[in-house]
Amino acid sequence: MQHPVFQNTKAIIIYFGIWIILAGIQFIILYFQYHFPIEIAMADSLVFNLLFAVICLPVWFVVRYTTPTSKNRFNVVFNHITSLVLIIVIWFGGGYSILSLMFQDQTVYNDFLSISIPVRLISGLLLYILVGLTFYLLIYNYNLQEKLKMEARLNTLLKETELNMLKSQINPHFLFNSLNSISSLTVSNPEKARDMVIKLSDFLRYSVSSGADSMTPLSIEFENIKRYLEIEKIRFGEKLVYELQVGDNCLDQQIPVMLLQPLYENAVKHGVYESTNQVRIETECRVEPGYTEINIVNDFDPDAIPRIGAGVGLNNISERLRLTYLRNDLLKTWKDGNRFYVRLRIPE
Predict the structure, then answer these.
(1) Both 267 and 339 in a single domain?
(2) Which DSSP helix (H) or strand (E) runs through 242?
(3) CA distance linking residue 100 with residue 106, whole number of Å
(4) Are residues 26 and 109 in the same domain?
(5) Which residues, 6 or more positions from 263, have their beta carbon under 8 angstroms from its beta carbon?
(6) Interval 169-181: pLDDT, tens
(7) Domains in the chain, number
(8) 172 shares a domain with 98
(9) Span 98-151, pLDDT tens digits
(10) Do 271 and 174 share a structural domain?
(11) pTM value?
(12) What does the alpha-carbon distance between residue 210 and residue 205 come to, in Å, rounded to a whole number?
């Protein structure tokens, strides 16, 4: 940590400005209370205060490198006593000598210098303590700010790590299902298998090209959702029908990359997989005051035995929303008859 007085011009001006104010107070006392001539009052106040201001600058290094702890109390006290004695001797000895030479013919003032020795020594002690405490407070504030910056950096790294872990759970899950579908189609329908491989390649290229904590426009995110649904449609054919109603005013809304994909995975997994009838997945996106709302509805068979999964989808999205927007109320799901509803709100 740099000496606080020499950090910049402003710090130097503030530091010596405070000592000039103290010199002004001393001048007022000497001139109005003790009735010394203006030149003597001014010289006395400036010499003693500005000299102390310069001499006590090295106190910073005593404070900086002797942080008080339970193990080094004696060393701290010894260092400060030694520093105090040296500073007082140099300060008072130098100031006394300078003023005695300047006003050697002023008997009254020289007598005053001798009489005021105890008061000046006590004031020097108090000034040393004040300067030392100020430096300790500056170090404490500096360490506190550094600690807060470090905690902020650690929180950012933790957030990025969590987001990357969440995203890493999505791709293998979808890839596993897609490869199973391609494996089946290579025998029954090689052309569809080839088409599915191409779409899967485009899909994965998008998913791995962006970091887990990056944002993307909804227009690009929905393009990738179309790829995903087309991949699944190759396997399920007419059993899967989807509809995307996305307003033009929604397309520029920024959204975390790959946030929507688990919702459509769930719709396919718990709707298309478990139903013997045609399943519709409907999407509506509209802009409301303060947020963009995305509603996804899919059919499902309420009598079907639920498929057991790892629970990645909805929990994953809720956690990413919490980490990104620091809110827990942006995702809502509910069932109504044979339809499953998802409402997702993205703050502006």
Answers:
(1) yes
(2) strand 240-246
(3) 9
(4) yes
(5) 296, 313, 314, 317, 342, 344
(6) 555 666 777 788 7
(7) 2
(8) no
(9) 999 999 888 899 999 899 999 999 999 999 999 999 988 988 888 888 888 878
(10) yes
(11) 0.52
(12) 9
